[in-house]
């Protein structure tokens, strides 16, 4: 392989953005306080012992109908354009791509999120990702009526194996389960870097770390999440805990460029050993 691939895989809410993406205008069309929406959703999940992800998606459809809000793909994308990003995120992809290229590596970016694909499509960074694995709706007459894809913490782990084997389809369950020798897999786990912030990311963080990749817990430097990220570090579920500033020279940039250097060195050593 002339240009081995390195996959950077990101959660979205709390990782690239400081809040749930639905809270940047969309939920306010149902009620002034987004907390009311989440309380309704969580209550539905608790009372029915049901999936929190499916319940938030159903609650969204129910509340939109009551408020007379049209949940079209166009509206989702409009609200997605309002999503605020952490410092440095917009410039991050170009800088890391260039750094990987300088080391003879191809950097690919993926989203692995319980947020909404339709909203991510409206963000200014959507075109940076090779694939977005996230929740999405089914539509009738142009409006969302039912969850089409629901991504919880177990679904997130399956997407890692899809990236590992080069399977882009969310629907597919055949190619991802076929036997493929490690040497033939497009993105070995050792060349994955996973970024996450919450409980739904822990299985992915642990899995990537366990199979030789690197996991980074991201926290809002203006919030109270630092202790949670440092606990993940203490529990050895991640390699690093970093404040959410993606600007050049900041800790995340330093960590990721060092990992890329390590991947390049490991590949060079492996090539020497094979001779």
TrEMBL record:
InterPro entries: HAD-like_sf, HAD_sf. The keyword Nucleotide-binding does not apply. One of its GO terms (molecular function) is hydrolase activity. Keywords: Hydrolase. Pfam families: HAD (PF12710). The keyword Hydrolase applies. It comes from the Bacteria. This is Haloacid dehalogenase-like hydrolase. It comes from Candidatus Coprenecus stercoravium.
